[in-house]
Amino acid sequence: MAIKVYKPTGNARRQMSVVKVENLSKARPVKGLISIIKKTGGRNAQGKITVRHHGGGAKQFYRIVDFKRDKFNIPACVKAIEYDPNRTANIALLQYADGEKRYIIAPARLQVGDTLVSSKENVKIQVGNCTKLENIPVGSLIHNIELTPGLGAKLVRTAGGWAKLMAVEGKYAQIKMPSTEVRLIDKDCLATLGEVGNAELMHVKIGKAGRKRHMGIRPTVRGKAMNPVDHPHGGGEGGCPIGLKHPKTPWGKPALGVLTRKRKKQTNKFIVRRRQNKRLKK
What we know:
Helices cover 4% and strands 24% of the residues. By secondary structure, it is mainly beta. Strand 13 and strand 14 form a beta hairpin. The chain has 2 domains: 23-201, CATH 2.40.50.140; 221-282, Ribosomal protein L2, domain 3 (Irregular), CATH 4.10.950. It contains 2 helices and 17 strands. The strands form 5 sheets. It has a 7-stranded antiparallel beta sheet with strand order 9-16-10-13-14-15-17, with no helix packed on it. It has a 4-stranded antiparallel beta sheet with strand order 7-6-5-8, with no helix packed on it. The chain is globular and about 65 Å long.
């Protein structure tokens, strides 16, 4: 897929671009694989806003994606590659040999008509196949990675995302994450070969405010444009700086580059090498 840039027929069109969707299916999603999403507007059961900038947006159905890939040793044919409004990646519709249909995250270079398989044993080294980390050749690019065997994929599911299998030693495999962090993961966890498709999405320019409203995102006001009672950055006369040594959230907590991970977190022992934080290096 490629990026489509519109002719500058107006101020909004001048900056707008979209991902071309010639390869995506135009059929409606499979009825048994969708569910209704209830709109909350960012409010909790008491009616209070707990997540800002949510509201409106086009009506969407949630596509039930198979993150477990637990239908082992049964070949599946790729019937279609579809758009999913709930995630950045596209999804692929698989039809297994026994007739069951499931959605998976669509890897890059996956074509309609390809045959995929998921197995706990060795599988063909092909984009879209799923197996244990211990069966994957070292140096391979992977995505859709489990953290705990059998609980489904939790890591590397975004458009264009990929991780790299660095080594398999003893009980664990060393995975280089997209953040450059090297982490130990149980070698019995499942992962999918290849990288996630739709990587061109990062180059898309939204172009106009209305398009954000269609996505369910309401306007975001700058803190320095508010009054002091509403935000730590607020107040002042004219175009003033924030007046603080470091930026803060609307609730007064330090923001932008501050480490939030707990120092004594139980899973710290699984991190072999921390991610490279350019902000901290400065």
